[in-house]
């Protein structure tokens, strides 16, 4: 997973419906991102949509778990069954 939601999250509900992979869900206290479903929107959009709509900028890249573009493309193809096209 390359994105995380920090504890600055205000549970505003705008990120969850924007995720094309349904990787965002309500956790015990704040929203969480499923690392196995997050592709940073690779294959769907040019930029992570959750970051674009977050009003408090609480969805940074997880520097402790960065994925390469190739890894994200592979994950996209596995999740969707589609072939990635640039």
From TrEMBL:
Under what name is this protein listed? YfhL family 4Fe-4S dicluster ferredoxin
Cellular component, GO annotation: cytoplasm
PROSITE patterns attached to this UniProt entry: 4FE4S_FER_1 (PS00198), 4FE4S_FER_2 (PS51379)
Annotated keywords: 4Fe-4S, Electron transport, Iron, Iron-sulfur, Metal-binding, Repeat, Transport
Domain 4Fe-4S ferredoxin-type: start-end pairs: 1-29, 31-64
Q: Which domain of life is it from?
A: Bacteria
GO MF, one term, reads: 4 iron, 4 sulfur cluster binding
Q: Which InterPro entries match?
A: 4Fe4S_Fe-S-bd, 4Fe4S_Fe_S_CS, PSI_iron-sulfur_center, YfhL-like
What Pfam families does this protein's entry cite?
Fer4_7
